[in-house]
């Protein structure tokens, strides 16, 4: 366990509390005791004499840590590999880049993502992991990385026990030799449901709640890729252990068509019939939904995780989050994986979420403000992690997940509106200090919780080794991707 000061004082900061009143405090103090915020405001000397660590924050901005509510750690090594790929083409190429990793490669890949997120102000994450069948050693590798990093993390154990019909050729034709190669090499073979159940039960028992920072959720790859029995199993597991459920949902139009053919209704309606549409469910993408679906999502309390950058890059579509927000759907933000986004910087996701929907909405009153998207990246993410009462704002009683930004960059001079500049001007490079659960992990713009330089050096040659190992799978994936011009 990382060392944590029993009492930590942040003194003299400009504080965006993101509380219900969206309070901004000038030159304010924040007292943290045993990982919990115990006081916010001007504190007298008697209340801070017992502190064993003081951070002088005059001239800095203090905000709640950002929450990346959807990404994929196996993709942390593959930025720059997927330009001008459609969703099915990307999905096939992704197999060659991410399959057959060793536990050490899984660990380093996850740590690489932690470095990027911490240095740009993200303190918590939902990792939809992995992309293929997995074993207990894979789970241990990725969760060991999050434990060692100091981040707050939920591992959405991504599984499927049915086929990937959404990335099959629409006409069903595959050359005979390619079909034979698929039978030999396809890494997307369905997992037996009993194996999935056992692995999830084991992961929850051994890892959920570790250090108060680590969680494990059942996480269908996509509902259409799972049997109804598997989906109901997720809900039963979540209720029994008080967990959330995380999934991709209706990322592409093809997935919406498959749901109608398969169930005779929308995928959202089918999830409601199965009992999965509750506050426990967080749904990445959620692009291809109609008005009744939006009503169902709002009424259920489910969380929609908006991933604007990856949705645009692979041409999947634009999620109707303006309509969702107007109806009261809880919205979180995610970067998605580095294969469809190329970085894990939440500042870019916030900025795009704020401006993407403006041209289609003539009434400026419907535009998202900086405060709105900050709420998505904090409160919305907290809801997706099922930790809404614990993180997401700077208030007494909340866990101390905090970020200090230097205000000496040109885009901060002068500070006219801290919320607006944090969303529209900042890019994550002004992060000075990152604290998770009361533990400083980044200080002076450098990671101090672990040896980030050693992780980066170890990661540099990994992709070459993985591709060499997967050379036949790469050729298979390339031929499959070419079926989707």
Describe the structure.
The protein has about 475 residues and is an alpha/beta fold. The protein folds into two domains: about 5-65 and about 395-445, Urease, subunit C, domain 1; about 70-385, Metal-dependent hydrolases (TIM Barrel, Alpha-Beta Barrel), CATH 3.20.20. The chain contains 18 helices and 17 strands. The chain has helices at about 45-50, 85-100, 105-120, 135-150, 175-185, 195-205, 230-240, 255-265, 265-275, 290-300, 310-315, 320-325, 345-355, 370-385, 420-425, 450-460, 460-470, 470-480, and strands spanning about 5-15, 25-35, 35-40, 55, 60-65, 65-70, 120-130, 150-160, 215-220, 245-250, 280-285, 305, 330-335, 400-405, 430-435, 440-445, 445. Strands 1, 2, 3, 4, 5, 14, 15, 16 and 17 form a nine-stranded mixed β-sheet that branches. It has a four-stranded parallel β-sheet with strand order 6-7-8-9. A four-stranded parallel β-sheet has the order 10-11-12-13. A hairpin with a 2-residue loop joins strand 15 (about 430-435) and strand 16 (about 440-445). The model has no long low-confidence stretch (mean pLDDT about 95).
């Amino acid at each position: 366990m990382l060392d944590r000061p029993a009492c930590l004082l942040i003194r003299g900061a400009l504080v965006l509390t993101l509380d219900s009143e969206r309070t901004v405090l000038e030159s304010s103090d924040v007292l943290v005791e045993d990982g919990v915020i115990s006081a916010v405001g001007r504190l007298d000397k008697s209340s801070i004499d017992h502190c064993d660590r003081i951070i002088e924050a005059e001239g800095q901005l203090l905000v709640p840590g950002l929450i990346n509510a959807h990404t994929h750690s196996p993709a942390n090594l593959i930025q720059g590999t997927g330009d001008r790929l459609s969703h099915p083409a990307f999905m096939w190429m992704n197999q060659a880049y991410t399959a057959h990793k060793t536990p050490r490669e899984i660990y380093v890949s996850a740590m690489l993502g932690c470095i990027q997120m911490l240095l740009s102000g993200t303190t918590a994450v939902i990792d939809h992991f992995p992309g293929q069948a997995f074993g207990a050693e894979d789970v241990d590798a990725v969760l060991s990385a999050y434990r060692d990093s100091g981040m707050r993390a939920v591992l959405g154990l991504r599984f499927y026990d049915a086929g990937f019909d959404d990335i099959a050729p629409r006409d069903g034709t595959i050359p005979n030799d390619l079909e034979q190669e698929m039978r030999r090499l396809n890494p997307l073979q369905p997992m037996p449901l009993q194996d999935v159940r056992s692995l999830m039960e084991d992961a929850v028992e051994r890892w959920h709640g570790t250090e108060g920072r680590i969680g494990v959720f059942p996480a269908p790859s996509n509902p259409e890729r799972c049997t109804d029995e598997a989906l109901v199993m997720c809900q039963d597991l979540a209720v029994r252990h008080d967990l959330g459920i995380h999934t991709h949902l209706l990322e592409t139009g093809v997935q919406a068509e498959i749901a109608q053919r398969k169930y005779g209704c929308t995928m959202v309606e089918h999830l409601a019939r199965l009992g999965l549409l509750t506050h426990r469910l967080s749904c990445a993408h959620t692009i291809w939904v109609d008005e009744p679906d939006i009503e169902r999502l709002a009424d259920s309390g489910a969380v929609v995780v908006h991933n604007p950058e990856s949705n645009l890059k692979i041409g999947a579509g634009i999620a109707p989050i303006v309509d969702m927000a107007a109806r009261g759907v809880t919205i979180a933000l995610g970067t998605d994986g580095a294969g469809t986004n190329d970085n894990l910087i939440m500042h870019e996701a916030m900025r795009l979420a704020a401006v993407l929907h403006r041209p289609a909405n003539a009434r400026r009153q419907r535009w998202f403000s900086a405060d709105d998207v900050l709420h998505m990246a904090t409160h919305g993410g907290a809801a997706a992690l099922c930790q809404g009462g614990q993180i997401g704002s700077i208030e007494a009683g909340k866990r101390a997940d905090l970020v200090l930004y230097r205000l000496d960059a040109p885009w901060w001079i002068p500070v006219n509106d801290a919320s607006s500049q944090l969303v529209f001007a900042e890019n994550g490079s002004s992060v000075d200090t990152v604290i998770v659960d009361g533990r400083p992990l980044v200080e002076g713009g450098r990671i101090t919780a672990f040896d980030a330089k050693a992780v980066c050096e170890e990661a540099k040659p990994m992709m070459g080794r993985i591709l060499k190992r997967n050379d036949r799978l790469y050729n298979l994936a390339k031929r499959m991707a070419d079926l989707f011009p």
